[in-house]
Amino acid sequence: MVSRSRPGTVYLTGAGPGDPELLTLAAARVLSRAGAVFYDRLVSPEILALAHHGAEMIYVGKEGGQQDEVQPRILRQLAAAAWRHAAVVRLKGGDPMVFGRGGEEWAYLAEREVPVVLIPGVSSAISAPGLSGIPLTLRGVARSFAVVTGHEQDGQHENWDAFRSIDTLVILMGVAHRKQIAGALIASGRPANQPAAFVERGSTPRSRTVTSTLGAIARGETDVESPAVWIVGEVVRQHEVLAAMSEELIEAVA
Ligand code: SAH
């Protein structure tokens, strides 16, 4: 094991929503040079293939237990790796600072005087809806959006009333509790016929968009698979419009 006189740099790096083309140039460059790469479940094999072939590849997904239990171990491993390598990449799906624990990891490393550099990524919260023809803001339709977690909520605990006046809601990690959340959103004053969409595996070849309404989701009528970004609001109507237009375009070009 190489012993260093001071710790190397940890690059908290966004991997984007899945498609390797959506990686930043900075992310691709640090990946190709880092001595160790920490990655989790949502990072695609094509992106991992960009790592230096001699790099230590360290999987730190959830399988070893719940994230709250494994997180202290990840933090210790990251700090230790910085003492072995000049550059360590901590790869996260999407952007590290959006439900990616980037803030916690940065603080832990900084307290231990390990230098940290953030490389932002393309968040699924914004890119998955966009790729599916759903803008988060639209002139005359939506002037605001909020990104919210739907994780470990039975819909009763989150104060959905607080989001009543936000035009577009983007819910991450919301597939499992969608029924309860949709019910709570209706109870907060959103109309039951408000359109909603789930974009599964955005930016990957297996991407699928499921459109529905809050009422139908609350009744358990909408089949969805994780990971998916859930969009609630009038902007969802654009999906049909833009998807139809791009199909026409494809036909015209073919
Ligand atoms: N830091 C990530 C979010 C991590 S939370 C980001 O910025 O994108 C994990 C949640 O992100 C999933 O439950 C899902 O809601 C969403 N997600 C991540 N990648 C996705 C993708 N390719 N398509 C759809 N949803 C995705």
Describe this structure as you would to a colleague.
By secondary structure, the protein is an alpha/beta fold. It contains 8 helices and 10 strands. It has helices spanning 25-33, 45-48, 67-82, 102-111, 124-131, 178-187, 214-218, 238-253, and strands spanning 9-14, 36-39, 56-59, 87-92, 116-119, 145-149, 168-172, 195-200, 208-213, 228-232. The strands form 2 sheets. A 5-stranded parallel beta sheet has the order 3-2-4-1-5, sandwiched between helices. It has a 5-stranded mixed beta sheet with strand order 6-7-10-8-9. It is globular, with a radius of gyration of 20 Å. The mean pLDDT is 93. Bound molecules: S-adenosyl-L-homocysteine. Residues 17-18, 42, 92-95, 98-100, 123-125, 128, 172-173, 199, 201-203, 226-229 line the site of S-adenosyl-L-homocysteine. The site of S-adenosyl-L-homocysteine (SAH) has 24 residues, from helix 5 and strand 10.
Helix count equals: 8
- Please state the average pLDDT score: 93
Q: Which molecules are bound besides the chains?
A: S-adenosyl-L-homocysteine
Sketch the topology as an H/E string, one letter per element. Answer: EHEHEHEHEHEEHEEHEH
What proportion strand?
15-25%
Overall shape: it is globular
Unreliable spans: none
Main sheet characteristics? 5 strands, parallel
**Secondary-structure class:** alpha/beta
Helix content: 25-40%
Order of adjacent strands in the largest pleated sheet: 3-2-4-1-5
Distance between the first and last residues' Cα: 57 Å
Radius of gyration: 20 Å
Count of extended strands: 10
Q: What descriptive keywords fit this protein?
A:
254 residues; alpha/beta; five-stranded parallel beta sheet; five-stranded mixed beta sheet; binds S-adenosyl-L-homocysteine
